[in-house]
From TrEMBL:
<dbReference type="InterPro" id="IPR004045">
    <property type="entry name" value="Glutathione_S-Trfase_N"/>
</dbReference>
<dbReference type="InterPro" id="IPR040079">
    <property type="entry name" value="Glutathione_S-Trfase"/>
</dbReference>
<feature type="domain" description="GST N-terminal">
    <location>
        <begin position="1"/>
        <end position="82"/>
    </location>
</feature>
<dbReference type="InterPro" id="IPR036282">
    <property type="entry name" value="Glutathione-S-Trfase_C_sf"/>
</dbReference>
<dbReference type="InterPro" id="IPR036249">
    <property type="entry name" value="Thioredoxin-like_sf"/>
</dbReference>
<dbReference type="Pfam" id="PF02798">
    <property type="entry name" value="GST_N"/>
</dbReference>
<comment type="subunit">
    <text>Homodimer.</text>
</comment>
<protein>
    <submittedName>
        <fullName>Glutathione S-transferase family protein</fullName>
    </submittedName>
</protein>
<feature type="domain" description="GST C-terminal">
    <location>
        <begin position="87"/>
        <end position="207"/>
    </location>
</feature>
<dbReference type="InterPro" id="IPR010987">
    <property type="entry name" value="Glutathione-S-Trfase_C-like"/>
</dbReference>
Length: 207
């Protein structure tokens, strides 16, 4: 069995996949496709993903693009702990977290952490978009914490794919002066402490 991950360590979506691979204890090769250098849009990577995005994985002769597909595929085929909750309701909670992050979270969070950490990549420091991003990120986190409720993780009692989606963008937000305001949401602090203690989180710092 061979497993190759295409995507560089600065990408939140790539880190989501790497955290799953670490949770599973899987062996894999990684080929750094650097988003900051525009490498996803070079012909070599466009042949892997015509939309010019990372991550991409090759599992033997089978290629998967799109983080949601990669995560559910790898969770199913790799041995180790399952990151898919056991009940239909907890699966829905994890899935809601993933979809909310994809649809409303990543873009708004990136307009905040990108402002400080990667201004050139997001087309320069735009205060209006950063302020809008702060408000939307707060809404996203407060809705996700409602989904979590009193459980330790977004999909219930155990770590699931939904948590692995949210963690990397929160790591970038935590490096900005806006983190305190965005993270003030009820329930977030406990979840964030738990995530930062995960060996899979510690083993995948952005570079
Ligand atoms: N829908 C894609 C989104 C992945 C994505 O946005 N990846 C970013 C890095 S975090 C990327 O490849 N950006 C390159 C670019 O847009 O030029 C997925 O779920 O995998």
């Amino acid at each position: 069995m061979s497993l190759t991950l295409y995507g560089f360590d600065g990408s939140p979506y790539v880190r989501t996949v790497k955290m799953l691979l670490k949770e599973k204890g899987a062996e894999f090769n990684q080929l750094q496709v650097n988003v900051m250098k525009g490498e996803p849009h070079q012909p070599e990577h466009l042949a892997r993903n015509a939309f010019g995005k990372v991550p991409v994985i090759d599992h033997d002769d089978f290629r998967v693009i799109e983080t949601s597909a990669i995560m559910s595929y790898l969770d199913e085929v790799l041995p180790g702990i399952s990151l898919t909750p056991k009940t239909a309701r907890d699966r829905a909670r994890s899935h809601m977290a993933q979809a909310i992050y994809d649809s409303y979270g990543y873009g708004s969070m990136a307009s905040v952490f990108g402002y400080y950490l990667f201004p050139d990549f997001i087309g320069g420091q735009n205060d209006a978009s950063r302020l809008q991003g702060i408000e939307k990120s707060k809404l996203v986190l407060s809705e996700l914490m409602k989904i979590k409720g009193n459980d330790p993780f977004l999909g219930g009692p155990a770590l699931s794919i939904g948590d692995l989606y949210l963690a990397p963008a929160c790591a970038y937000l935590s490096m900005t002066p806006d983190a305190e305001e965005i993270f003030a949401t009820k329930g977030f602090a406990d979840w964030w402490t738990r995530i930062q203690e995960l060996p899979s989180f510690k083993a995948t710092p952005p570079q």
